[in-house]
């Protein structure tokens, strides 16, 4: 079984064609020739017995006749590489030709034997390979996705044998809408109008292809029901046909759509479909690579954010620990002051009467001793001790300038 990729290459480049012809006399009359040769130089006019100059008019024919005249005149063979086709053929064609002089029994040149092989396929394959390699290098260098897709669209438009306008739409994460990716040759108003279209049955070629996960070929936009809602828009953009292919990830997830628009109604040929498959795969590679990079950047951003939050938490913990240590040190200092004050007051004599009555005095016996962190101490009765605890404590806490027990005793 032939590999699908090989089938695509054969569809794109076909088979090389061998040509030959026998030319007679200085006028290079076509004595006999292969159909391929006659098709190359004469188009639809398949004739023998006619001078080659009559089959190949114009500058290209003049260059060919001049080369044949040289071989006929000198008797020296000539080999040409990648010689452009000289006939009125519609497609671009190149050949490797060998012109061999024919001689009679006496050695005189009587004509020329033309043998050649078409190299068009080789040149196109080389060009496609070079363009494809350039795209892969862009992807490997992590070029912006927009640049890769825009460059890809332009390359396809250059490689296609007929005029084509390429568009790539990118699927949202939920696969329900398609966003503009690249469309260098479509009008801006058209790109803006379809940016964000839904995926679904009958939503143009691209929306339907994305919904079905299979190619959708619309050969005539003017009559196709899928384009009912976009027919006027397409008409203003000068679009008559649209072939859309879904771009799928390796796991089958929708990545976007790859579309080829045409100015006239057209049915795709095998070469068109092969070109679509080749570059849809490249687009999938570029988009998947972009998604991977985005996921990596997002993961790195989350990691940086988590690291920053952890650093903030560690700093806050350090600040709380330092504050707790300061409070513990202050409490230890206050406790030491109170112990020192109590020790300083210990030797003082125990009065008989309450010292907490203020200016009015109090004749009640002194039963309880109070002390504060300033080193003041006093004895009092139960009633005045309770009053002092309330007042001195609040004053002590609220404003140290009011002093401790000494200020209270002398009130």
Detailed description of the structure:
With 411 residues, the chain is of the alpha+beta class. The protein folds into 3 domains: 102 residues, Beta-Lactamase, CATH 3.30.450.20; 173 residues, 2-Layer Sandwich (Beta-Lactamase); 62 residues, no CATH class. The chain contains 12 helices and 13 strands. Strands 8-7-6-11-10-9 form a 6-stranded antiparallel sheet. About 4% of the residues have low confidence.
Concise account of the structure shown:
With 411 residues, the chain is α+β, with helices and mostly antiparallel strands. It is 48% helix and 20% strand. Strand 6 and strand 7 (177-182) form a beta hairpin.
Strand order of the largest sheet: 8-7-6-11-10-9
Total helical elements: 12
Write down the CATH topology of the largest domain. Answer: Beta-Lactamase
Number of domains: 3
As a percent range, the share of strand residues is 15-25%
Order of helices and strands: HEEHHHEEEHHEEHEHEHEEHEEHH
Largest sheet: 6 strands, antiparallel
Oligomeric description of these chains? single chain
The CA-CA distance between the termini, in Å, is 114 Å
In total, the number of strands is: 13
InterPro entries: GAF (IPR003018), GAF-like_dom_sf (IPR029016), PAS_4 (IPR013656)
Organism: Dactylosporangium siamense
Domain GAF: 131-297
Keywords: Coiled coil
């Amino acid at each position: 079984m032939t590999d699908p990729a090989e089938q695509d290459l054969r569809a794109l480049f076909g088979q090389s064609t061998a040509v030959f012809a026998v030319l007679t006399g200085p006028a290079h009359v076509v004595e006999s020739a292969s159909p391929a040769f006659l098709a190359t130089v004469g188009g639809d006019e398949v004739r023998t017995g006619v001078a080659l100059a009559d089959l190949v008019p114009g500058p290209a024919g003049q260059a060919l006749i001049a080369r044949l005249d040289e071989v006929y005149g000198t008797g020296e063979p000539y080999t040409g590489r990648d010689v452009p086709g000289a006939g009125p053929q519609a497609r671009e064609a190149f050949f490797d030709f060998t012109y061999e002089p024919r001689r009679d029994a006496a050695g005189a040149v009587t004509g020329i034997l033309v043998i050649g092989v078409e190299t068009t396929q080789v040149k196109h394959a080389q060009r496609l390979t070079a363009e494809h390699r350039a795209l892969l290098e862009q992807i490997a260098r992590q070029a912006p996705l927009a640049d890769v897709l825009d460059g890809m669209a332009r390359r396809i438009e250059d490689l296609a044998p007929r005029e084509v306008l390429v568009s790539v739409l990118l699927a949202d994460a939920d696969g329900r809408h398609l966003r503009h990716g690249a469309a260098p040759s479509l009008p801006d108003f058209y790109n803006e109008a379809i940016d964000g279209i839904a995926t679904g049955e009958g939503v143009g070629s691209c929306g339907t292809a994305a919904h079905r996960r299979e190619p959708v070929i619309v050969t005539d936009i003017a009559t196709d029901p899928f384009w009912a809602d976009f027919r006027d828009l397409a008409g203003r953009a000068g679009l008559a046909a649209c072939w859309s292919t879904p771009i799928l990830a390796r796991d089958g997830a929708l990545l976007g759509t790859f579309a080829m628009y045409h100015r006239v109604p057209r049915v795709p040929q095998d070469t068109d479909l092969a070109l679509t498959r080749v570059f849809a795969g490249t687009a999938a590679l570029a988009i998947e690579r972009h998604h991977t990079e985005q996921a990596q950047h997002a993961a790195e951003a989350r990691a940086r954010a988590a690291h920053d939050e952890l650093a903030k938490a560690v700093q806050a913990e350090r600040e709380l620990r330092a504050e707790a240590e300061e409070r513990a040190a202050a409490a230890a200092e206050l406790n030491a002051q109170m112990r020192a004050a109590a020790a300083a007051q210990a030797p003082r004599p125990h009065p008989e009467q309450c010292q907490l009555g203020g200016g009015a005095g109090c004749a009640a016996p002194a039963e309880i001793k109070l002390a504060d962190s300033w080193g003041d101490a006093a004895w009092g009765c139960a009633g005045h001790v309770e009053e002092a605890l309330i007042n001195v404590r609040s004053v002590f806490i609220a404003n140290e300038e009011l002093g401790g027990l000494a200020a209270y005793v002398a009130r």
